[in-house]
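Why do we bother with a discrete structure alphabet at all? Because it lets us treat a fold like text: something you can write down, compare, and reason about line by line. To make this less abstract, here is a complete entry for DUF1214 domain-containing protein. Read it the way you would read a sentence in a foreign language you are learning: slowly, and without expecting to understand everything at once.
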Amino acid sequence: MVTKPFADAVAEAEEIIKSAPHVRTEQDLAEGYDYLAGSIRASLQMAWAYERDFPFFVTSTGPHTKLGLDNPDTLYFHAYLRDDAEYVVTGTRGSTADLSFQVLGGDYTPAESPDSVTAFDDRDIDIAADGSYEVRFGPEPSRGRSNYVTLGAGSAMLVVREAYSDWSAERSGRIRIHRADTLGSSPEPTSTRLTAKRYEVAGKMLVNRLKTFLAFPEWHYLHLPVNTMTEPRPTPGGLTTQYSAVGHYELDDDRVMVITVPAASKEDAPYQGFQLGSMWYISLDYINHQTSLTADQARVDPDGRIRYVVSERDPGLANWVERTGHSRGYLQIRWQRLARDLGPADGPEVEVLAFDELPERLPYYERQRVTGEEWAERIAQRQKDVAARMLG
């Protein structure tokens, strides 16, 4: 059977979900099966997108194909490459706060992350007055050529990220890719042999991604003391203009975590965002709940700081970040398109309080108050913004 390798992989993937070390409750398992469904969908899409001679961009992750603590504020795209061919990427800069490009060698595995061959943002390329650009990726030395990126040995994938600080901004950016010497021609017709190969590859991708991103938090999060966050540091994976502060939490429903961080200036970091993640190492429901906040979405206090209140119970505050029933999970702050290195003073301070202590202990508490109607408006805006921009 052509589909048998994939069917076998799905069965293996289900066992991986069932035996995940963090599964304690029926809800944990139900979320795992939901995560599995998105991973099946994503693996099939990636296997059928493996076209290095006639490449095209596909959505790497989205609301229904989550992986790797996906950023709710980012649209992710990728295309496959050969390191001995030349590719042309054309597009329009658009309204995104950060537009970045990264060439990866290989793929994520349970043992290691892929090598980052090169990474840069749109400040490193020439963009026309109307926002349009053309960038070439190829095997030849650039020799000072503008908008030419040399593909190092082993280059396998081009990843493009659009990060939005304002979700309501219209997505005016565009991007496409073609191989320079195949434009105008066409690939060979598909065959049973090729289709069987794609099912086999999709199965391997499925099992590999589940194993990898269950192991990933062990590398970067779970060795840290619980209910703390790190100082800002370069984000693992070679993203040269992104810093992050990370941690993991475990809270009872009568406890809250207050995370205080300076609001970065637009000159230093036009994108700054905070999110929660589940123990499956994926974002929580950011469409119907406020489980993440960008600097533009958050209410900044008069002292120039953002105070996120991570809580299961509703505190009636603008910067409430909802746990949505997750007593354990991951914490991450990202700063992107940086103009300078960040230090400890730019990073978060973390305090765990009793829920009832918030009125006395939280600075500017009254200023942060929101009514139930105002909160419903915030959620409605998230739902409309995701429907308009982050389709998946």
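What the structure line is telling us, in plain words: The CA atoms of residues 359 and 379 lie 24 Å apart. The two ends are 30 Å apart (CA to CA).
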